[in-house]
Amino acid sequence: MIKTKQQVTECIYQDLSSVTSQTALVGFNANSLLSEDLALTSIDVVNMLDRLAVNDALHASDETRKLDEITTIRDLADALFADQVLPEWYGKLEEYVDAKVHCLASCLCELVKQKQLDHRPYYFCVPDAEVIVSDKTMLNYHSDDISHQYMLDGFTTLYGMTVEPWYDTSITKAKNAEKLTDLVDNKLDSEHIIVMLDMYHLPGIDKEFDRDPFPHYVMVGKTNDPSQWFIYDPDYRWEGIIGKDRILNAFMQPTVEGGLLVNDAHAKPYTRDAINNFYQQCIKPDFNALNAASRQILQFFVAGKDAQNRSLDLKGVALALEQIPVLSTRKYAYEHCLAYFWKELDYEEPEFDDLCELIEELYNVYKLVTFQIMKIAASGNAKFINKAFALLDAQDEREYRIKQRLADVYSVWAHKHGY
């Protein structure tokens, strides 16, 4: 059975833990240097490759066994992953697979890939995922007012895996921490524990944004050492060992609450009906949520009044829109959506590449929007305000072009299958 990169990394850890003391593996993670951090010689690594082949069916190619340019656990995991005979949907159109788009979707899609199922259609729910303009006129990706239920229901309908919340808002945080510990200690092989942590309180873990707070979904599991947990972050592709107390501290922060338990015992391939319904439910052809919310907030600050007619200082607009960089990464999900239909319809690759460049441009121009917003906050100059609105107008045009092409290929697919 094909293993994901996360599973390969865990196999490496489990192998090392069978021949190395737990003390030597404290701090093990995807970025650990084989020689400097783990004290592994080239002979140690080759012996490990032999064991992985026997125990985990991870067969290293001759090229991998040379160990050229393999210096970290991540390098080794990437090489062993690539040495597998991968499914068709890991083909050339999947070169974009490393895009960071949505932490919950990334956790769920990791579980889909572990069951040898195609994760791409699940990303229909990401490009137009809800964003909130708070009552303080702030752009938010994390809010009690945002419901992920449609994402969870769609996941179960597509793939058959059950998703149940284990976090209980009616009990104390300390009691929820006890529930989390019990789940980890007694986890079944078919169960996967997702938890929301404030990643600001876990320095040293790779993450693109250094925010305070930083609410983020990850997966956790146990190790041979009860004081150490394995943490999996599919969104930022970080796997490693973290002290249980550190993880619980990040969990206990008042800025986060939430957790899900996924059971893959009844995982199944999606049906065409499920794909058709999920697409129609998720894609909003006439509305761009991030752009609309950003424009609304900017308009409020330029007018100097919020929706409740309270005064706003233009200097606060940069803080109000500081989450644009986090939210704009969701636009990369269009690549997954398009790739699904491209493969289904056996379309030529060059146009797909052109669309990926347009999606990349959509993402990058949001950096320019953020820069203009910062200049507005610093100066209040009208020319910067006009430029920001012009950039947002251009972003709408780009995104609608992408959505139109997505709608076109969906229409061809739907007609082909009688919808």
User: Cα-atom Rg, whole angstroms?
Assistant: 23 Å
Derived structural class: alpha+beta
Low-confidence stretches: 92-97
Beta strand %:
5-15%
Q: What's the story with the biggest beta sheet? A: 6 strands, antiparallel
What is the distance, rounded to the nearest whole angstrom, between the alpha carbons of the first and last residues? 34 Å
Strand order of the largest sheet: 3-8-4-5-6-7
Strand and helix order: HHHHHHEEHEHEEEEHEHHHHHHH
Structure explained in plain terms:
By secondary structure, this protein is of the alpha+beta class. The protein has 16 helices and 8 strands. The protein has helices at residues 5-19, 22-25, 42-56, 62-65, 73-82, 103-114, 149-159, 173-185, 244-251, 272-282, 289-303, 317-320, 324-328, 333-345, 349-379, 382-416; strands spanning 132-133, 139-140, 162-165, 191-198, 215-222, 228-233, 238-243, 259-263. The strands form 2 sheets. It has a 6-stranded antiparallel β-sheet with strand order 3-8-4-5-6-7, sandwiched between helices. A two-stranded antiparallel sheet has the order 1-2. Strand 1 and strand 2 form a beta hairpin. Helix 14 (333-345) runs parallel beside helix 16. The radius of gyration is 23 Å and the shape is globular. The chain starts with a helix and ends with a helix. 39% of the residues are buried. Mean pLDDT is 91; it is low at 92-97.
